[in-house]
Amino acid sequence: MCIKYPIPEGVKISYGTAGFRADASIISSTVFRVGILAALRSLKTISVIGIMITASHNQISDNGVKIADPSGGMLTQEWEPFADLHGNAPDPQNLVNLISEFAKKENISFGGDYSAEVLLGRDTRPSGESLLEAARQGISSVVGAVATDMGILTTPQLHWMVRYRNMGKSSLETDYFKQLSNSFRCLMDYIPGEMTASEMDELIVDGANGVGGAKLEVVRNSGREGEGVLNHGVGADFVQKEKIVPSGFGQADVGKRCASLDGDADQFVYFHVLPGSNNKIELVDGDKILSLFALFIKQQLAVLSKEDGRQVHLGIVQTAYANGASTDYLKKLGLEVALTPTGVKYLHEKAYDYDIGIYFEANGHGTILFSASFLSWLETRNKELASTPEVELINQAVGDALSGVLLVEVILRHMGWSIQKWSELYQDLPSRQLKVKVMDRTAVTTANAEAEVVKPTGLQEAINCEVAKYTMGRSFVRPSGTEDVIRVYAEASTQEEADNLAKSVAQHVD
Ligand code: 16G
Ligand code: ZN
């Protein structure tokens, strides 16, 4: 069976922060193996599983694959070591041995009453079609397993479909859009009063020439004919890292409210263009989106608690990349803030600890999770309303740029805020990110949600020494989960200081 998909010589990929990701030309054997793995996961959980073929914000020649678990979240971390082994199994015999050993350990039986079912989705990358076929063949090599191609989708749509299928609900793409647009309209209708002229200003969306662009009607960088290349000088990741306008935006847009999605629409940031010829922007990043959501929900909860006396445990989850000014702001609001390592799966898991958990990475990955007990209380309370549009607008499976943008729009409208006003919630501390190419990124290990280096010894002390030279200085280093580099982050009271701190810390890493 594997003859068609042998692992190319010398290739070893690992199931990193967000699945397997590499140059598309070397990944089909891995995708085939992930097809098998997803079918096993379906048998194990007796639920529908998802496979998404995407490399998110990476260049167009890359591709990747990740598995969505029954809840619509990421594959359980318990299975990752096996995914690693299995995804790299060199020959058919080795693969079969691994599978049968693992199936025994996990108590998975083949040919039983339940047939595995896997939903497949892909983004707009040209390599997607043949990789989807590889996944499909992997799935069908497990007895009785059924693969359903859901077509070209955003990553969050695929996760959402898996979640809704497993809840026994209708889960087509049209259902997704119906849910989003109904709850959006409903929330907009709740807001009293007429819109002022500035509130009616339209939102301009940069679709990264990706699938998010393809799903929207009015968008720049939609990825349609003649619009440009996926993730090339466009999209949330570019805008967040470079802090300049994406292609297709410029001085004609000064001051307007703009949003950038990434290539698979699971990440978004806002910005407005600053006057001047250098195409600089004022970035409204994931931390500020988080702060807006947190402020809004805190206000709503205050109303609830006045009416019903119910105390709701609201928690905020960030990573070490969160701008120090955002963490300060959130704490000043009286909110509980937890930090986790980088990667959606860690933040998502932590957010389950609360009645309402709001998590965001600075790069714009994030969402809001509501606990089952809170939801059932809310439903009883809102009986007369028949639905809870705030909850329905938010994708509980995974961060979702389309649903996130709609929620931002509702809240800005509710507050009567322009993007400028939102941006002034707090002033970001100047920061700098650098990457250092190294032979072996696993030589660096960290603790305390990546804020501290454990190995190599002496490195943390060296960082501490550098940080001590600056006012408001903060810096950390961590191995990237998606590239062969060590990332360096530094923050200080001026841009020059942040740059210098990052540079000197990078020298210790080298
Ligand atoms: C992946 C993660 C993202 C994280 C980024 C860090 C998901 C869906 N995506 O894109 O959350 O911020 O990796 O990349 O989990 P790095 O490890 O290369 O810095
Ligand atoms: Zn993405």
UniProtKB/TrEMBL annotation:
Binding site for Mg(2+): 56, 262, 264, 266
Annotated EC: 5.4.2.3
Any one GO molecular function term: metal ion binding
A Pfam family per the record: AMG1_III
Record's catalysed reaction(s): N-acetyl-alpha-D-glucosamine 1-phosphate = N-acetyl-D-glucosamine 6-phosphate
Binding site residues for substrate: 361-363, 478-482, 487
Protein name: Phosphoacetylglucosamine mutase
Organism name: Papaver atlanticum
